[in-house]
Amino acid sequence: MELTIMTFNIQHGVDHARRLRTPGLSDAALIDLGRVAEAIRRFQPDIVSLNEVRDAADKPGFCAQTRYLAEACGFPYFFFGQALPAETQGPYGNALLSKYPMDPVERVMIPDPDPIRPHGHYETRCLICASVRLPSGTVLRVMNTHFGLEPEEAANAVETVLSLTDPANPTIFMGDLNLEPDSPCIQELHTVYRDSASLLPKGTKTYPSHAPEVKIDYIMSCGPCRFLRAEVPDLVVSDHRPYLVQVEV
């Protein structure tokens, strides 16, 4: 069975193009989830991994973003994994949207480093783990995460991902990893996972969307599944570009 899979850091729906035109506006004033939904619908993915989602129905300018995007894009199955409570602006984390049932699906917390170095930029992170039940009868393991910025955070995240990976099962691992391809942590993931970046034009970048300088977004696989195509569309919606693959499972 062939699937289209997308990963997209949506920066809680901030319209990055408008931010460039009108600097100084607050995030809440720049939210346009309609543009995010339009970008997702354009590519008709079967499974979507989202980072920097703010599920905040009771906060001015925000909403239950996971449900909004699932309903706007026609995904009957969706899950929000909260990493931060973010008391002032609502729960913050990752989300997974799927055309097919996810059972089970869970949030796994990534351990915070201990000790924490002074002056570091630390933020608690999580991982969504889902068993997506395809019409073919195959159960595809899907994991979505957003790594922290500090090296210790990335090391803990990689250890968590690998501890939850069974290389014998068809698995997709994806998200904003905040690491460039030559990072030791990415190389450690490559001991188990195949990187769809091998199908992208050499030097493809994903961030910032208006003038990409680095590649920090990834879609990887292990087990009996095969990447057919990969694409990073030239879209300025969020501050990251979306990343898509076609995979045979």
General description of the model:
The chain is globular, with a radius of gyration of 17 Å. The mean pLDDT is 95. With 249 residues, the protein is of the alpha+beta class. The protein has six helices and twelve strands. Helix content is 20%, strand content 33%. Strand 7, helix 5 and strand 8 form a beta-alpha-beta unit. The strands form two sheets. It has a six-stranded mixed sheet with strand order 3-4-2-1-12-11, with helices on one face. The protein has a six-stranded mixed sheet with strand order 5-6-7-8-10-9. The relative contact order is 0.18. It has a single domain, classed as Deoxyribonuclease I, Chain A, CATH 3.60.10. It starts with a strand and ends with a strand. Helix 3 packs across helix 4.
Q: What fraction, in percent, of the residue positions are helical?
A: 10-25%
| Beta fraction | 25-35%
Radius of gyration: 17 Å
User: How would you state the average pLDDT, rounded?
Assistant: 95
- Model regions low in confidence, pLDDT < 50 over at least 5 residues: none
- How would a crystallographer describe the biggest sheet? 6 strands, mixed
Element pattern in H and E = EHHHEHEEEEEHEHEEEE
**Could you say what the CATH topology is called?**
Deoxyribonuclease I, Chain A
Summarize the structure.
With 249 residues, this protein is α+β, with helices and mostly antiparallel strands. It is built from six helices and twelve strands. Helix 3 (33-43) packs across helix 4.
